[in-house]
Give the backbone structure.
Amino acid sequence: MAKNRTKIEFQKLSELPPMVQSLRSMAANPTGSWRNLKPVLHKENCIQCTICWKFCPDAAIDWVDDYPVINLDFCKGCGICAEECPKKCIEMVKEGK
Amino acid sequence: MKKVIMGNHAISYGATLSRVQVIAAYPITPQTQVVELLSEIVADQKLKAEFIKVESEHSAMAACIGASSAGARAFTATSAQGLALMHELLHWAAGARLPIVMADINRAMAPPWTIWTDQNDSLSQRDTGWMQFYCQSNQEVLDSVIMAYKVAEKVLMPVMIVLDAFSLSHTYETVDVPDQALVDKYLPPLDYKYRLDVNDPHTYGGLTTPDWYMEFRIKMHEAMDQALVEIKKDAAEFEKVFGRRYDPVEPYMVDDADIVLVTSGTAASTARFAVDQMRKKGKKVGNLRMRLLRPFPFADVREHLKNAKKVVVIDRDISYGYHGIWAQEVKSALYGHSKVPVFNYIAGLGGRDIFPETIMNIVADVKKMKRPEQDLYWVEVKK
Ligand code: SF4
Ligand code: SF4
């Protein structure tokens, strides 16, 4: 899903830009294991409104073929998408179940 | 064109002449007339800029960071508590290497509530990565805004222009407002290489591991070192174009002086006046005015204090449980280079006036001592 997960590595001080720019350090560092609750999408009720996609504070929802797809490599299980979804078609399920 | 204007408006003219493109400001106390006049200039379409009214100083700096990241020349102004509220984002602006310029009108920190001058607000931001230029006249204030963009955009570090509340901010002085054409020649439009670009998307400021964090800090430090070089070079260039010169420090009769005062802001011009009076009586006193806090001009300070038998730092600020902040800087510059005793006097906090007599009394006091007997001396305080 995440296209390029290779972190940019610098060899020398002179290669560094003045500020951190697209290091891909987050993409290379999956943080989904922090989650207690997992969002599960019930696609049949989804009206494709993009609200969950906009609200996810971790940008862990991708938009694929006109539907949201939750990227569990990064989703923290905060439940904001479920809370904001107007059709309540995202369910928060306990991890490990 | 010569105009009689207050310090606040000198900033507004400086920003206008610098053709700033985004001004973000919180419009209520502790704001000053700086952005009031700017908002009128923008409303009258005399400056093509976006004026963003925000709900706090924190947001003002956030808006400047956004604007600057997009490649716009960004400006804001604040004071005291407002500057303190920006603190987090001052680090962000510098760390993101954004050439933002801001004016800070030096007001004492509350509580107790106050509106008068001292330097604790700006000096508290010493380690945020902002350059700080301390001004002593309205002319210097206007010129400094223009110079600030020049150096900021060269080394990609932000600059704070600092001026005393009331003694400059609300005091009217004759100021030569330079022609726009001259300023345009001196300060070309900003071409920010790292700007946000929808056609070349990037994330900024992302997670950086211990592998590389330090190297980004080295880069910032090197940029500051480079800034000092640029500021010195630019002093000559600015003088060529505008006929006025601003060096990192301004020595006055220091070469043969036994006692050299170290001052900043408007206290410096008062000190020079006092030096003149004392010289008439044959006292060998000089003054070193500090214009730069950061980058700190170590070499200039050492050079101009090398003949002094006593150095007297007058601080309009205090680091509680320590002593004056400028005294700390000066002592650190001299350590290992000179054995000259450094006396520290704390004066004029919360806008208490510093008169020529105040300074002459300090000198008389210093004359009585071989070395400082205390870490600091309070000036003209109730017993
Ligand atoms: S649970 Fe939170 S982190 Fe996970 S997809 Fe929903 S909004 Fe994003
Ligand atoms: S908020 Fe709910 S309805 Fe809207 S796109 Fe997301 S899942 Fe579908």
Notes: The longest helix of chain A spans residues 51-55.
